[in-house]
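Re: your question about Translation initiation factor IF-3

S., sorry for the slow reply, the queue was backed up all week. Below is exactly what I fed in.
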Amino acid sequence: MNGQIRARSVRLISEKGEQLGIRHIREAQEIAEKQDLDLVEVAANSDPPVVKIMDYGKDKYRKEQARKAARKKQVNINVREIKLRPKIGDHDFNTKRGHVERFLRGGDKVKVTIMFRGREVQHPDLGEKLLRRLATDLEDLGRIESQPNLDGRNMVMVMSPKKEVPPKAEAKADGGRGERQESQETSAARS
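Result:
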C-alpha cells in the first residue's frame, strides 16, 4: 500500500475501474495523493504489478461487514448426546424423549447412546427396539441420520432435525396456563 510498493513501474487502475496504463510508481502515487486516496497493490505477481486507486479504509470496512453478514447466515449445528439403558422405565424414557424433542426443536443433532452392562450386551435387539421406539415417537421432528449401530458395549443412533419443525401445541407450550390466565383477566375486568 502507498509507499510500501517496491516495483518501479505498475499497471494503474482508477477508482472507477478504468485502466490508466503502465506508469512509474512515483507518478501513480502522485495521482492517488491528488485524489486524496490510497494506492493499493491488487496483483503483486503479475508483470508489472497491478495497483488500484481506492479508499483503503472504506474497502476494508466493506469487506468486514460482508464477512459479518456471511457469519450471521451461517448455521451452527451442535451434536447433543443422550444416554439410555436397555431396561429403562417408561417415565424415565418419556423424560429422555422430552430432552431429545427439545434438542431437535432447537435445531441440534442428537446422538442417542444405549449403554449395555454385563450380559445385557447379548440382547442388542432390546436396545435397537428402544431406539426405534424413540425414532417413531419423534418422526415428525427429526429423522434418523445414522441407523442404530452396535459399537462395543454401546449402541448408537444419530437423529437430525427435519427442515421445518412443527410448532408445539399451544396447550403444551404454556403448560395449560392459558385458560387460568384468561379467567384471571376476565375476573379482573368484572371487578
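Helices lie at 25-34, 56-73, 90-105, 124-137, 170-173, 177-190. The two ends are 76 Å apart (CA to CA).

Happy to talk it through on Thursday.
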